[in-house]
Amino acid sequence: MMHMTFYWGRTVTVLFDSWKTSSWLGYALTLVACFVVSAFYQYLEVWRFRLIRLSAAGGGGGANPTGIDAPLLHRKVAGKYSAARIAGTVMFGVNSGLGYMLMLTVMSFNGGVFLAIVLGLTVGYFVFRTGIEEATVIVDNPCACA
């Protein structure tokens, strides 16, 4: 029976029927896995942002006609099938899939799993995304967990 409210306990089914925990060790390893995967999600987002900037700046002769450093005012000069753009598209698909898997994991309604994922996203954001990457505004992420 699937839980429809938050509960606390070591028994949880995560994503697949074969991923069930019944011991405290299994539950702890599940929480560590959730933490690591959600931090890794933030790491992949950084690489996706870099690929987007590389795609937007690539192609040679991409001078900013307005003199204002605003991403929405730049004309994209990279080709439709450039390597950076294709890699960015692949990264978007991977990140979307991973984000939805994290969302479905939270929907197990286990309080520990929820906290592990939120803490993993928070620590991953602090470690990988704070700094110069925050100056870039990216609005194409469909996942609510980013």
From TrEMBL:
Keyword Ion transport: yes
UniProt-annotated location(s): Membrane
Pfam families for the chain: Ctr
Membrane topology annotation: Multi-pass membrane protein
TM segment ranges: 24-44, 109-128
GO molecular function, one term: copper ion transmembrane transporter activity
Keyword entries, A-Z: Copper, Copper transport, Ion transport, Membrane, Transmembrane, Transmembrane helix, Transport
Domain of life: Eukaryota
Cellular component terms per the entry's GO annotation: plasma membrane
Protein family according to the UniProt entry: Belongs to the copper transporter (Ctr) (TC 1.A.56) family. SLC31A subfamily.
Record's protein name: Copper transport protein
Species of origin: Acer saccharum
Lineage, uppermost ranks: Eukaryota, Viridiplantae, Streptophyta, Embryophyta, Tracheophyta
